[in-house]
Amino acid sequence: MEKGKLQEYWKINLGYLIGLLIAWFVVSYGFGILLVEPLNAIKLGGFKLGFWFAQQGSIYIFVVLIFVYVSLMNSLDKKFDVHED
Amino acid sequence: MDVQMWTYTIVGATFLLYIAIAIWAKAGSTKEFYVAGAGVPPLMNGMATAADWMSAASFISMAGLISFMGYDGSVYLMGWTGGYVLLALLLAPYLRKFGKFTVPDFVGDRYYSNVARTVAVICAIFVSFTYVAGQMRGVGVVFSRFLEVDINTGIIIGMCIVFFYAVLGGMKGITYTQVAQYCVLIFAYMVPAIFLSIMIAGNPIPQLGMGATGADGVYLLDKLDGLHAELGFAAYTSGSKPMIDVFAITLALMVGTAGLPHVIVRFFTVPKVRDARISAGWALIFIALLYTTAPAIATFARLNLIDTVSNQSYAEMPEWFKKWEKTGLLAWMDKNDDGKIQYLGKAANGGDAFEGGKPAFTKQTGEYGQQLMSNKPTDNANELFIDNDIMVLANPEIGNLPNWVIALVAAGGLAAALSTAAGLLLVISTSVAHDLIKKQFNPNISEKSELLYARIAVAVAIVIAGYFGINPPGFVAQVVAFAFGLAAASFFPVIILGIFSKRMNKEGAISGMLAGLIFTAAYIVYFKFVSPDMNKPEFWWFGISPEGIGTVGMLLNIAVSMIVSRITPEPPQEIQELVDSLRYPKGAGEAVDH
């Protein structure tokens, strides 16, 4: 495959990765650890928000992040014609 | 039927199922043996990965650990799930495109070096053995508590079962057995959790029940914080560990998870690159089901425990209390002779009830029928000893659930331990037969004899693992930090840099791996073995505990690799082309043998 196009494909992929990893960092290390105290002042039903992110929320968002990446990449693969079969 | 009969029936039925699957999925080639012929559908691979990943510790111990640690327990919840995001985004698709059998294969080929391959093989074997010994012990513990056979007999039965399906079926047998084991373990975990959630929070979904109100209209977590304050424990919803340590441990566990060879190898078994991405997603869904339920169980169990025991008289304790007392997971020492159980934390003059860690029963019973101990009492007011493991194991009894549920928990614990053990044993055998014998000593070996070596290696590994299970080295608990620390400081950076930096060469990779490994190992050995009495926050570097030091090891590895690779020659042209080809999915054939 053509070199320039491949580089473009890789650049877009890196862009997706950076965006999703920022989200990954923010929900776990940000909301669940670094900002846990201030967020705990907010209540989500019976949960303090920071505590909820640390024990529940971050895990749900991890799952969502993976599926978002899968769907972004599947369409990117098609667009650049690097998909399998 | 009584509990015993139910347990024999359910455990027996699940074992028959595993054996039947093994016979059906017999491996005929090395490719089937190592990577299940790279033909596992992604959904099933996700399930198998989940079972592979969730060990006896996740199933039996984690909820209990969180129950005692409160917010601090979050390090395990985030740490053992967040790694899958890294796997799906940064590792799995590229390693699948690479299309060989093992992690050392990748390291050896990408860094065109047998030295790098050898370092990787040694790490893989060490990490896997560390882990597998704990699983065998878990099998023994479940057998002895539920079937009342001797721990050693339990381990031998477990060894025979794993022997059968791992030796016969290799990865193919293991994968399909793990799918069945996932179903057993998740069912066994959810049923008591749902019952408890209905009972305590009036909500059948434990994840929601945890944030709901109890019968008295007070939010469960608020009530728990109140009880903790009253009894002198640190608040449940805010931790007592320093923030930097929580951060470092979580990161070390995440990165370690993504670097564990038995997890990575699962992504070699799917047919396509895009299957590798999505199967990481399925795996995390299946894992998240248990991992989001665990903190709910932790909350319910903690409330229930305090409610049942605190300041109540021993004579009125329910039956489960006395039953579990016999196993040594619970013990009560009536220090003030009032016949009531005082359960207190440090802030209310509590602490360890007695010296010596575990209760040493004298086989005599005291005034109220309690088991007496020869341990020396401590001078604080706490009288109760509780082992973490009891929270999950005794849950069905605490909740007064039917006998078949108790039997189900036994089968679930066994499924969790066996599935993880099998995955690890396969990594060990592949490392020996493929990475050492074929790649280093005898490249001309025929496929048939390689397969034979692989089977012999599994068999030998099972025997060694069983030996460690029966004679556990005193350091099993300590070495878990080792497994994650080493995976984080060695495999993860070396793989990531191999994919994302074309400039990374063998000099950089080898020196980085060695720097990360030696630093991490030295730090852990120093605080865990050389001077354990210095293992306190005031002596730790930057306040980071040995559990979290893998994070620093990983950063060190990356820094050293980057610097060394810039001052040494760049990798050969064909390696740079290999890296280019990893970066897009097209042309990923089935996993091939060179």
Provide a quick synopsis of the model.
The complex is a heterodimer of chains A (85) and B (594). Chain A is mainly alpha-helical. Chain A has helices at residues 3-34, 36-40, 49-79; strands at 43-44, 47-48.
Structure characterization notes:
The complex is a heterodimer of chains A (85) and B (594). Chain A is mainly alpha-helical. Chain A is 80% helix and 5% strand. In chain A, helix 1 runs antiparallel to helix 3 (49-79). Chain A is elongated and about 55 Å long. Chain B is an all-alpha fold and 594 residues long. Chain B has helices at 3-24, 30-35, 42-53, 56-69, 74-98, 103-110, 114-147, 151-201, 206-209, 220-231, 243-259, 261-264, 273-309, 319-326, 390-393, 395-398, 403-441, 447-470, 476-489, 491-500, 506-530, 549-567, 573-582, and strands at 330-332, 361-365, 371-373, 384-386. In chain B, the strands form two sheets. A two-stranded antiparallel ribbon of chain B has the order 1-4. Chain B has a two-stranded antiparallel sheet with strand order 2-3. Chain B is globular, with a radius of gyration of 25 Å. Classes of the chains: A mainly alpha (85), B mainly alpha (594). At the A-B interface, helix 1, helix 2, strand 2 and helix 3 of A face helix 5, helix 10, helix 11 and helix 13 of B.
